[in-house]
Amino acid sequence: MAKRQGRNRFAYFAPSMHAGLLEKLDLADDLRGAVERHELQVYYQPFVDLSDGAIVGAEALVRWPHPRHGFIPPDRFIPLAEESGLILPLGYTVLEAACRQAAAWPGLKISVNLSPRQVQDPAVVLYVQQTLARSGLAPHLLTLEITESLLQEDAEVAQHRLGELKALGVQLAVDDFGTGYSSLSRLHDFPIDVLKIPKPFVDGVAAGAEQSALARAILDLAAALGLGVVAEGIEHAEQAAELHRLGCEVGQGFHFSKAVPAAELDALLPMRLGAAGR
Ligand code: C2E
Ligand code: MG
Ligand code: MG
Ligand code: MG
Prior knowledge:
This is PAS domain S-box-containing protein/diguanylate cyclase (GGDEF)-like protein. There is one protein chain. The protein is of the alpha/beta class. It has helices spanning about 15-35, 75-85, 85-105, 115-120, 125-135, 150, 155-165, 185, 200-205, 215-225, 235-245, 260-270; strands at about 40-50, 55-65, 70, 110-115, 140-145, 170-175, 195, 230, 250. It has an 8-stranded mixed beta barrel with strand order 1-2-4-5-6-7-8-9, surrounded by 6 helices. α11 (about 235-245) links the parallel β8 and β9 (about 250). One magnesium ion binds near residues 59 and 113.
C-alpha cells in the first residue's frame, strides 16, 4: 500500500510514530556513546541452591545508567544493540567484566548471556578463550546462556559454533526454555548442559497441578536427558519449596535477590538467601 502511494507514503506515518522512530535513533546513538565510553555496568543476580539457600553462582546482567533517562532496562536496549551490531562490543564488555569478577569469587559459577548475533560471529570462540585465559577463570565455571530461537534459526551455524564453544570447556544453557518454539527433537543435536525454566512457568508453580505442568515437563525432560536445570523468576518461598520438591536444585529470583553490583554480592556470599525469617 505504501509503495503504491509513491512519494506521498510518508503522510501515512502518524506523527507519534515519527517521534517514536526519532527517539529510537536517539537512543541507539546514546548507546553507541555509552559503549565507547565504557558506561555500561554489570550487575550480578545470585543462583541459589534450593536445598539450603547457599549462593552457588550468579548471572551477569548488563545495566545502562542513562544520564537523562536513568537506568534503561535491557529489554529496551538489547534489541537496539542487536540491530546496530553494537551487541558485539557490548557483549564482550560484559563477558570480560563477568569473567574477571568471577575469578575473584572462588568456586562460584558465572553465567553470561550471549545474543544470537554473538554466536553467529566466528570470532566469538577465540574471544571467549582469550577472555578466560586473561581472567584466569576455570572454563567449567563459565556458563554461556543462549536463546532458544538460536537453535531454530540458523541451526547449522549454531550447532557448529556451540560445539566449538563447548570444546573450550564451558557450559551451555538455554535461556527461557520452552518460550521459543524450538522442536524438542533438535535439543539432542546441541551440546547443551542446562535448561533454564522461564519466569512465566515458575509463576504457576505452587498454584496447582495444571499451572505447574510446564515447569514439571521441563524438569522431567532435563532428568531424562541428563541436563541441569535452573528456575528463574522465583518470587515466593512456596515456589522455591515446590520446585525443590519437584527435583529442581538451583533457582534464581527476587525471592532470593535481584541483580546487584559485585560489591553487594560479596556481602551476600556468607548468607543463606530466601530462608524463613530473612
Ligand atoms: P534473562 O537472561 O532471562 O534474565 C533474567 C531477567 O529476569 C533479568 O532481567 C532479571 O533481572 C529478571 N528477573 C530475575 N528474577 C526475577 C524475578 O523474580 N521477578 C522478575 N519480575 N524478574 C526477575 P534484566 O536484567 O532486565 O534482563 C532482561 C533480559 O535482557 C535478560 O533476560 C537477557 O535476555 C537480556 N540481557 C541482560 N543482560 C544481557 C547481556 O549482557 N547480554 C545479552 N545478550 N542480553 C542481556
Ligand atoms: Mg539469562
Ligand atoms: Mg532467562
Ligand atoms: Mg527472562
